[in-house]
């Protein structure tokens, strides 16, 4: 068997759920995005001391009052873990991949975004650690981390766009 065939077979076994999408830093380059289940995400969050809540007390991806992590990008979940460990703040996720958020390539539905409840610790960490980059189209102040992820202050919560895991 040729080396190329072996590597191709191995790649299919190791990353069967990888999907090619455009990268944030270089839109022409394709990067592999690994999707995870709600159960995998909650296990990761629980292990890091991250909490989550929903106004409906549910996790149905097709119900806007739920908080779902189905089809979340692995890098997004890892980004939450990075924020938690770097900030040492209480972190509560209030929005995931459920319907009801704005659409687009880098959206909640497509696994790139999480919403966090605001608290003084998280807000201070974001404003003091990241670079202010101006207002988003809807008027939300935005901050960019060193890794390129974008944190938008939507008033009652932080809307975070994860292009990567934030240095995990």
Q: How would you characterize the overall build of this protein?
A:
The chain has 168 residues and is an alpha+beta fold. The protein is 28% helix and 26% strand. The chain has 4 helices and 10 strands. The protein has helices at residues 3-14, 38-48, 74-87, 120-129, and strands at 18-22, 30-36, 51-52, 72-73, 92-95, 113-117, 131-135, 141-144, 150-153, 157-161. The strands form 2 sheets. Strands 3-5-6-10-9-8-7 form a 7-stranded mixed beta sheet, with helices on one face. It has a 3-stranded antiparallel beta sheet with strand order 1-2-4. Strand 7 (131-135) and strand 8 form a beta hairpin. Helix 2 runs parallel beside helix 3. The longest helix is centred in the middle third of the chain and has 14 residues, at 74-87. The chain starts with a helix and ends in a 7-residue tail after the last strand. The model is unreliable at 1-29 (pLDDT under 50).
Low-confidence stretches: 1-29
Which percent range fits the helix content?
25-40%
Number of distinct helices: 4
| N-to-C order of helices and strands | HEEHEEHEEHEEEE
Count of extended strands: 10
- Principal-axis shape equals globular
User: In angstroms, what separates the terminal alpha carbons?
Assistant: 36 Å
Could you tell me the radius of gyration in angstroms?
Answer: 17 Å
Largest sheet: 7 strands, mixed
- Oligomer type: single chain
Lay out the secondary structure.
Elements: H1 3-14, E1 18-22, E2 30-36, H2 38-48, E3 51-52, E4 72-73, H3 74-87, E5 92-95, E6 113-117, H4 120-129, E7 131-135, E8 141-144, E9 150-153, E10 157-161
Parallel strand pairs: 3-5
Antiparallel strand pairs: 1-2, 2-4, 5-6, 6-10, 7-8, 8-9, 9-10
Helix pairs in contact: 2-3
């Amino acid at each position: 068997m040729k080396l190329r065939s072996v590597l191709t077979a191995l790649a299919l076994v190791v990353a069967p759920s990888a999907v090619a999408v455009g990268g944030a830093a270089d839109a022409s380059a394709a990067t592999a995005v690994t999707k995870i289940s709600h159960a995998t995400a909650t296990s990761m969050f629980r292990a890091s001391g991250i909490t989550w809540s929903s106004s409906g007390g549910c996790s149905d991806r097709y119900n806007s009052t739920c908080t779902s992590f189905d089809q979340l990008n692995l890098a997004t979940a890892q980004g939450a873990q990075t924020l938690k460990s770097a900030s040492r703040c209480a972190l509560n996720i209030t929005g995931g991949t459920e319907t009801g958020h704005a659409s687009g390539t880098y959206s909640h539905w497509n696994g790139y975004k999480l919403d966090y409840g605001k608290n003084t610790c998280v807000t201070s960490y974001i404003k003091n650690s990241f670079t202010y980059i101006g207002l988003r189209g809807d008027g939300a102040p935005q901050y960019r981390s060193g890794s390129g992820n974008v944190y938008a202050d939507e008033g009652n919560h932080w809307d975070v766009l994860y292009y990567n895991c934030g240095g995990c």
